[in-house]
Write a structure and sequence with these properties.
Blueprint: E1 15-17, E2 27-29, E3 48-49, E4 56-57, H1 59-64, E5 66-73, H2 79-91, H3 94-98, E6 103-106, H4 108-124, H5 137-142, E7 145-150, E8 158-164, H6 173-179, E9 184-189, H7 195-200, H8 210-225, E10 234-238, E11 264-265, H9 266-283, H10 286-295, E12 299-303, H11 324-332, E13 338-339
Parallel strand pairs: 5-8, 5-9, 9-10, 10-12, 11-13
Antiparallel strand pairs: 1-2, 3-4, 6-7, 7-8
Helix pairs in contact: 2-4, 6-8, 9-10
Bound molecules: guanosine-5'-triphosphate (GTP), magnesium ion and zinc ion (2 copies).
Length: 343
Amino acid sequence: MCPYCGRTFGGGELLLGCAGCGDDATRFPAAGLRRDRCPHGRLPQARRSCPGCLRDLPREYVDNGGRTIVVIGSTSAGKSTWVAAVIRQFAKGEVAERFSGMSLDLLGEDSRLRYREEFERPLLSGTAPVHPTVMPARDARTEPLLLSVRPRSRARPVVIALYDTTGEDFSAEHIAAHLGVASGILLLVDPTRLPGVRRVLALGQPRTEPGPRFELFCAALREKLGPHRFTTPLAIALAKLDTVWDMFEDRSPMRLPSPHSGDYVEADGLDVHYEVSSWLGHWFSPEFVRDVAESFPVHRYFGFSAHGRAPAVLPDRSSYRIEDPLLWFMARFGAIKTLRGRQ
Ligand SMILES: Nc1nc2c(ncn2[C@@H]2O[C@H](COP(=O)(O)OP(=O)(O)OP(=O)(O)O)[C@@H](O)[C@H]2O)c(=O)[nH]1
Ligand SMILES: [Mg+2]
Ligand SMILES: [Zn+2]
Ligand SMILES: [Zn+2]
């Protein structure tokens, strides 16, 4: 499937281009190769592009096939910041310290440029973004960041197309177009929008809550995919954990550093899952937790902060448990091992 236009093609349909054929240069389907040569008998260019939208597809994406992860949530839930922070976490080498040889690369010039311009600079530069929405809606739908995550050095990479939707997209049916093929969905919830948290922090009631949007989202999915339950793994994460840091007890798993190292530690994953789901039931609504369980048999709750444990203290804005959902997806994809039982 093309990560840009969403259409599906066979390998033989991907377009190749002539190299050094001058005025005769043309683009032709890979199936048209004759002994690895173009119609003029010369070696073609290495790059392959989509016959639907004509965009170049990175070689690793073509060779390995891609997994699609869609990041959704209300406006300003912290979606773009999560994407930026998780990539930075790899770049800083903090994941490789725990998973020897694990690495993440942005694939292709488009993804690298976009990461720098739209994620790294506005979200991690240490200055608050001028506009909360960093990405135009048009881009969110068609422009994934293509990542290649190598679980160990020289291991076969997992190629991930990461779609960072904007809040407005959350309920729209065009999201469902992606969700039908998604290998994973990450739903972010901003705790400062939840009625229970707002009462405790005396913030007044929010204009929008994530609940009605989640129902619309499920309705859009049903319309697209039929009335069945969705086998796609759903990760629901309480973002901006620093804003509710004081509400967790000392013994809470939300006080422990992420223990996943070498393997995905199932016991910790479950501890966090039960902690976050019970808080969400309490702060938000038990129906939300029930609806998630009913629609998505494979789901797990997470909590993280892109701004570290304390409320954002500049300049050190190291993050907390930011990579946990990605590690869970990697474990579900079979790319890293899951450690079961207590340590
Ligand atoms: N305190 C705190 N603030 C955060 C955290 N993550 C993001 N924010 C802030 O939340 C605001 C929204 O973040 P974005 O990442 O732009 O949110 P978004 O979900 O991409 O929003 P849209 O694209 O508009 O739908 C920004 O002001 C961020 O600085 C966090 O972990 N802690
Ligand atoms: Mg965004
Ligand atoms: Zn395409
Ligand atoms: Zn040629």
